Amino acid sequence: MTGELEPELLDPKTTSRRVFETDTRPIILFDGVCNLCNNAVNLALDWDPKGKLRFSALQSNVGRSLLEANGRRADDISSIVVVTENGAYTKSDAILKITEELTPLPLLPLKPAAVLGRYVVPKFLRDIIYDGVADNRYDLLGKRDQCRFDADGEFEDRFVDDSLACVDK
User: Mind listing the pLDDT tens digit for each residue in 72-99?
Assistant: First the structure.
């Protein structure tokens, strides 16, 4: 026992309002202990030079609150989730929503491919493929002991401050 008290958390809807109060960028909720997921976050950071996306671990206070605010269980880490002011996207819809914002090379936005993929490949088929990867993600690249954090502060404005889910003291 470390002797640290758990912070008192706000209700999920209040947390959701707080995280979008001054910053309306979508938030990607990712499995913070999954190496595949963390590598995908690194790729998204590199391919999103304008900083259109923010990030939070599914296991964080903010992540858990945003899951609940959008009708999911707080402990549900089965899918990547993209949360916007207006709702949430999961599984392949989340991947396509993220892809719409990425630009891996100058003059090579991925939005047209994402939009095309949404209409050409049926959702049930996209989700079967997504589930196959998600269900085996720890086997593919392993797992960390703790959630990722931005140690050097390079992307500080891209990771949602977890204290937004806590009652101010």
Answer: 999 999 999 999 999 999 999 999 999 9
Q: In the numeric block, which tokens belong to residue 165? A: 């889910």
**Residue ranges of E strands in 6-151:** 27-30, 54-57, 81-84, 87-90
How much is the pLDDT for 154?
Answer: 77
Contacts of 29 by beta carbon, 8 Å cutoff, 6+ apart: 56, 57, 58, 63, 66, 67, 80, 81, 82, 83
122-131 core/surface letters (b: 16 or more CB in 10 A; e: else): eeeebbeebe
83 class by beta-carbon count within 10 Å (0-12 exposed, 13-18 middle, 19+ buried): buried
The structure tokens listed for 97 are 């929503």
Q: What is the pTM of this model?
A: 0.89
User: 102-140: per-residue pLDDT in tens?
Assistant: 888 777 778 888 999 999 999 999 999 999 999 999 888
Among candidate residues 64, 55, 67, 57, the one with its CA nearest the CA of residue 31: 57
End-to-end Cα distance, the chain: 23
